[in-house]
Model the fold of this input.
Amino acid sequence: MKIDALVASKEKTATLNGFTHGEIGDDHLSTGLETPMKSEAFALSDSEKKERIAQLFHEIMDVMGLDLTDDSLKGTPERVAKMYIDEIFSGLNPENKPKVALFDNKYQYNQMLVEKNITFYSNCEHHFVPIIGKAHVAYISSGKVIGLSKLNRIVQYYAKRPQVQERLTNQIAEDLKQILGTNDVAVIIDAKHLCVSSRGIKDDTSATVTSFYGGAFSSPTKITELLNYINQ
Ligand SMILES: Nc1nc2c(ncn2[C@@H]2O[C@H](COP(=O)(O)OP(=O)(O)OP(=O)(O)O)[C@@H](O)[C@H]2O)c(=O)[nH]1
Ligand SMILES: [Zn+2]
Done:
């Protein structure tokens, strides 16, 4: 989205139903990395969204011929709505962005820090079925140190959206770069897409690997060091 359009959409959102969102989705990320969202994305409150999704999912189930008076099925539309908004797609709402604790690098630790094997569950934006994988994130401090758990939380925040793996990788990397004030950030994601394994081509053995190597991580020596840590 162009800068003018971003500013216009921000102003529009700020006036919507008194909502005070300073951003729609990912305005803080660089152009082109945002999850595509419409400017009215936050016109409805979370509880209004859940009510509407439940009605619509009820209709989908009804069209499929399911008996919605059955005691096992009748609560499903509400369960799905709650799961979408409060759980698996909660990362669409910037209000759920993790608060990040930063510390001064008093420890004078100047090598890479790797948080590896971060398990995440996301969902493919083409089929709305799970992507299950591990993310490995690394950075070299430029003066600030981030609380370890915040690295995991940032991964989970961006995973809890309809995603493609390439965007998930770059969104995590871009956010870390901005938070840490450095380009020396790397992200590797190794994931299974259920849209590839459980349907369609039904290949249960393949996996998808994506990476982002910024700043010092573009050197082959650093990449080798990083991969050695991850494969230990
Ligand atoms: N690049 C990329 N593609 C993805 C990702 N997740 C799913 N896809 C692909 O998105 C594509 C959507 O292609 P379509 O041909 O429109 O969908 P489809 O008819 O269901 O395709 P099949 O999965 O081949 O049956 C598929 O090839 C998926 O494998 C992802 O994270 N990144
Ligand atoms: Zn898919």
In short: The pocket of zinc ion (ligand 2) is lined by residues 124, 126-127, 193, 195 (CB under 6 Å).
